Amino acid sequence: MSTSDGNLRARLVAVGVDLLSREGTRALSLREIARQAGVSHGAPRRHFPTHQALLAAIAREGYHQLGQQVAEFIRTAPPDPYAQLLGLGRLYLDFARTNRGMFELMFRHDLLRGNGIGLREASGALFGVLVDLVLAARAEAADARPASVTAGALWANLHGIAELWQWGSLQTTVRTEDVETLLRAALDAHLGPAKATRTRAT
Amino acid sequence: MSTSDGNLRARLVAVGVDLLSREGTRALSLREIARQAGVSHGAPRRHFPTHQALLAAIAREGYHQLGQQVAEFIRTAPPDPYAQLLGLGRLYLDFARTNRGMFELMFRHDLLRGNGIGLREASGALFGVLVDLVLAARAEAADARPASVTAGALWANLHGIAELWQWGSLQTTVRTEDVETLLRAALDAHLGPAKATRTRAT
DNA sequence: ACCACCCAGTAGACAGTGTCTACGGCGGGG
DNA sequence: CCCCGCCGTAGACACTGTCTACTGGGTGGT
Questions:
Q1: Nearest residue to B164 via CA among B149, B191, B183
Q2: Could you tell me if residue B15 is left (phi over 0), alpha (psi between -120 and 50 degrees) or otherwise beta?
Q3: What is the per-residue pLDDT across B128-166, written as a single tens digit (0 to 9) for each?
Q4: What is the pLDDT of residue A122?
Q5: Nearest protein residue to nucleotide D16, judged by CA and C1' positions
Q6: Alpha-carbon distance B183 to B161, whole Å?
Q7: DSSP reduced 3-state for A49
Q8: Number of DSSP helices (H) and strands (E) in chain A, helices first
Q9: Which of A51, A59, A47 is closest to A17 using CA atoms?
Q10: Do A65 and A76 form a contact (C-beta atoms < 8 A)?
C-alpha cells in the first residue's frame, strides 16, 4: 500500500487532505488526523512540531495540486494569452469552489506565522505565471503600469470573487449566481475592453 | 426593556470587540470573554445560544462600525463620485488594515451558518452604497454591464486586495508595500481609464 | 401581603483539543 | 555485545464549548 509504507509524515498529510475534502476545516484536529492515520495522538509531533505546522504542510499540498492543475492547463491550452487568462481564472475559481476547505486553509492568516515559509513561495510561483500571461495578454495595448501591478490587481480580483462568493454575499446582493459574469468583468477591466471581443471566441 | 436590564449582552459584545482589537482572534474564546466581563463561563449562554452566535454578534458590531465610518465619510466628502469611490476604497482597506481581527471575523465562513442572518444584510447595505456610487461615477462613459456587476467586481477587487495583503503574499511577490497602487489600478480598471485623470485631483 | 414563578447568573461535569513529558521497543554503529 | 538515537505510545495538564442542576432575587397574580 502506498499510503501505509514508510513515511508517516506523508501519510498524515494525505489523510489530512482527504479528511479536509470530506469533512470541513473543523474536522482537521490533530487527534482526528492521527486517528484516521491509525497512530496515537502524540505520533504527529515527531514529524511536525505543532498542529499549525501540519496544517501548513496540508496547505502546501493544496498549492502543489493547484500548481499541477495550472501547469496541466497551460500545457494543453490555446496559444492566445487572453484565452489562457480566462481559463486560468476559471481554474482558480473552480478550484476554490470544488475544494472549499482546502482553499480556506491555503489562505489562513495564522499558518504563515513561523512555519509557513513555503506557502508564500508556493503562491509566488503561481503568481509568476500570472505575471507572464498578463504581460503577453496586454502586449498590444500599451499600459503605463508595470505588469506586476496589473497582475496583482487581477489576482486580487479573482481572489476576492472566490472569497466573497464562498462567503455568500455575492449570492444575495448581486443577482448573478454565475461567477462567470464577474470573471469576465474583471478580465475585461484589467486587460482593457479592446480584448473583450475575444471573449466570444471561447 | 429586555435589553437594558440584561446589559450583559451588550457588555459581552463590547468586551469581545475590545479583546479582538487587543489580542487576536485566538483570544476570543467564550470563557475568556466571560472572564473579561467578570461573569462566569456559563453566563453568556443566557444571551447567546452558542459561541458562534456571540462571535456573529461581535462581527455584526464590526459591520456597524464600518457602516458608520462609511456614512461619516459620505457626509463629509466632495461631490465627485470618483473621488468618493477612491476614498471609500481607502476607507475599506484602512479598516481591514487597522482592525485586522475584526475584518477576519467579519468574513468567516462558519459564522453565517444558522445564526448569521444579520451579517448578509449588514454587508448588503454597504454594497448598496457602492452600487450607487459606481452608477454615478461611470455615468458619462456608457458601460454595457449593469452597475451591480461592476460594483460587485469592484468590491471583490477591494476585498481581494485587503485579503491578499493581510495574508502577506502581495508584500513579497509584488514589491509594492503600497496598497494605494493596487487600489488605483483597480479603480481605473473598473471605472474606465478616462476617469484616471481625476486621480491627481486628490 | 404572600406565594409561586421565571429568569439571569453560578458551579460543576463531560467530551474533546493541543502540548508536554516519561516510557518502550527496535535497529544500526561503536 | 552494548548503547544510543529514533519513532511511536500512553498519560497528564490546562484549556475549550456545551449541557445540566442549582440558587438568588425580583415581579406579577390573587
A1: B183
A2: alpha
A3: 999 889 888 876 666 678 888 899 999 999 999 999 998
A4: 84
A5: B29
A6: 8
A7: coil
A8: 9, 0
A9: A59
A10: no
Residue A29 Cα, gap to closest chain B Cα (Å) = 16
Shortest CA to C1' contact from A49: nucleotide? C19
DSSP annotation of A28:
-
Listed as ranges, the nucleotides of chain C within 7 A of a protein C-beta are: 7-13, 16-22
Residue A64 (CA) to nucleotide C24 (C1'), in angstroms, measures 38
pTM: 0.90
Cell matching residue A50: 505543532
> What domains can you pick out in chain A, each with its CATH number?
1-47 (1.10.10), 59-199 (1.10.357.10)
Residue B201 CB partners (closer than 8 Å, separation 6+):
B80, B83
Backbone Cα Rg of chain B: 19
In the predicted structure, residue B75 carries a pLDDT above the cut 60: yes
Is pLDDT above 60 for B107? Answer: yes
CB A56 within 8 A of CB A112: yes
Q: Give the confidence band of B177 by pLDDT, cuts at 50, 70, 90.
A: low
User: Which stretches within chain A are classed as H helix?
Assistant: 8-22, 30-37, 51-75, 81-98, 100-106, 117-137, 147-167, 169-172, 179-191
* 8 Å CB contact of A169 and B109: no
Q: Residue A27: which residues within 8 A CB-CB, separation 6 or more? A: A19, A20
d(CA B143, CA B193): 13
Give the N- to C-terminal CA distance of chain A in Å, as an integer. Answer: 43
Provide the grid cell at A116: 509557513
Tell me the per-residue pLDDT of B7-64, one tens digit each, with 9 for 90 and over. 999 999 999 999 999 999 999 999 999 999 999 999 999 999 999 999 999 999 999 9
HSE on the CB side for B24, CA within 13 Å?
A: 5
Cell numbers found for residue B33? 470573554
Closest CA to A169 of B148, B59, B111, B121: B121
Please tell me what DSSP assigns to residue A121: H
